[in-house]
Design brief:
Order of helices and strands: HEHEHEHHEHEHHEHEHHEHHHEHE
Number of strands: 10
Strand order of the largest sheet: 2-3-4-5-6-7
């Protein structure tokens, strides 16, 4: 049982409880352990924190030695965006490949095995799946992270993914509400704007989120996008119309609402992370994700103090902060119960390979001849999606070299490509 440090008042504890910070290194720093003792209830892990499954299990055990009900979150989508296999690339095809196969049972099985592996390492919250309908082929941040451009296909695979992941005792965090698929700007760099009317929003963007809610997704992640038809003034993460009226009210969602990373320039470059975090909680968000680029105790202190000050100044209702903190604790209780119930799941170590083979058969335009010797690969490489992470091998050339040592590559990017 967690015992909180003496002298931490309820307001300060609640302010810490709603934060999901990151850190650097493969062991927990002293400041993070201290904050867990003061009320911090969640930690976000990234590629920089993971060297192997064994090391990850030791890290999560270290965190739980300080707070036994801590939520340990990760961004594990399979495909290009992997943290569990950050040094080698994922053993599982990503959403676009699963959507191409269009077998919901296969998607469910892939998500269940991913969940089993995460759970075995002590991770209990996955910032996945992406429920975005990739309707804009120029989208720089979603792309193959989406199941596809067909709304119904995305909806059924989103639901299957949620079901599979949560069957392993790992909470799904369906993202990026209310839909990041029709953007031509990466919210890591600037604030995207989607100019669609409400009928398109309802029929296209929201359909997969309805499916996820029906499937029981335990968390939903908001998007830093401006949709004037929904709210002409504030991006969805900071919008009561998006989070409280639409997600909570119209869609009937009652789980945890998590923000996308507040250090992303769509928020940090417009409102700032402190003001943005206050507005997000006031709008209906329950957990503030930060730490992809800001991963230190000073960031935690700044956000904690901003929330406490906003309550004391009357800008943020204390009951709203308390409600958000309780939703975090409720998810922690669910993960504990789900983990206890899922003790007999057998590994399915080949499901990723089966899924990849089916995707290749589905997408191959014509028969091909297997390689018999190391080839020369001319890789026409666009800029890697920032969500991939700098630690992860990316692009066809890297994979060919791993499979066939001696492969020569020529990489051409930008104007050269």
């Amino acid at each position: 049982m967690t015992t909180f440090a003496s002298g931490t008042d309820t307001l300060t504890r609640d302010a810490l409880t709603v934060l999901q910070p990151g850190f650097t290194g493969t062991t927990a720093p002293d400041w993070l352990l201290r904050r867990l003792g003061e009320g911090l209830a969640s930690v976000g892990l990234f590629g920089r924190n993971i060297a192997s499954p064994e090391q990850l299990a030791a890290l999560t055990a270290q965190l739980r030695a300080e707070r036994d009900d801590v939520l340990v979150a990760i961004d594990e989508e399979g495909g290009d965006v992997t943290r569990l296999e950050v040094r080698t690339g994922s053993s599982f095809p990503g959403n676009n490949a699963l959507g191409a196969v269009d077998d919901v049972e296969l998607t469910r099985d892939v998500a269940a095995e991913l969940g089993r592996r995460l759970a075995s390492c002590g991770v209990n919250l996955n910032w996945a799946p992406s429920a975005d309908v990739n309707s804009n082929p120029s989208n720089p941040v979603i792309g193959v992270r989406s199941f596809g451009a067909d709304t119904d296909l995305v909806a059924r695979h989103t639901a299957a993914y949620v079901t599979g992941l949560q069957s392993a005792g790992v909470a799904a965090c369906t993202k990026h509400f209310p839909g990041h698929g029709d953007t031509a700007v990466d919210s890591h760099h600037a604030l995207p704007r989607i100019d669609v009317d409400t009928s398109v929003l309802q029929s296209r963007e929201l359909h997969p989120f309805r499916a996820a809610i029906t499937a029981g997704t335990r968390a939903v992640m908001s998007a830093h996008i401006l949709i004037p038809a929904l709210d002409p003034d504030r991006p969805a993460t900071l919008s009561p119309r998006a989070l409280t009226e639409l997600l909570r009210g119209e869609l009937g969602y009652d789980g945890l609402i998590v923000t996308d990373g507040m250090e992303m320039q769509a928020i940090a470059g417009t409102y700032g992370i402190e003001r943005g975090s206050v507005l997000a909680v006031a709008a209906g968000a329950d957990a503030i994700c930060v730490g992809g680029g800001l991963a230190d105790d000073e960031t935690v202190r700044r956000l904690r103090d901003a929330l406490v000050s906003a309550v004391r100044a009357g800008e943020l209702p204390e009951e709203r902060l308390a409600d958000a903190a309780e939703r975090v604790r409720a998810l922690a209780r669910w993960t504990a119960a789900a983990a206890a119930a899922d003790t007999e799941r057998a590994p399915d170590s080949e499901v990723g390979l089966r899924a990849a083979r089916r995707a290749l058969r589905t997408t191959a335009a014509r028969p091909f001849t297997p390689l018999t010797e190391p080839p020369y690969v001319a890789a026409l490489t666009p800029v890697a999606n920032i969500a991939v992470g700098a630690e992860t091998p990316w692009g066809v050339a890297a994979e060919h070299f791993r499979l066939l040592p001696g492969t020569e590559t020529g990489s051409f990017a930008g104007e050269d490509a």
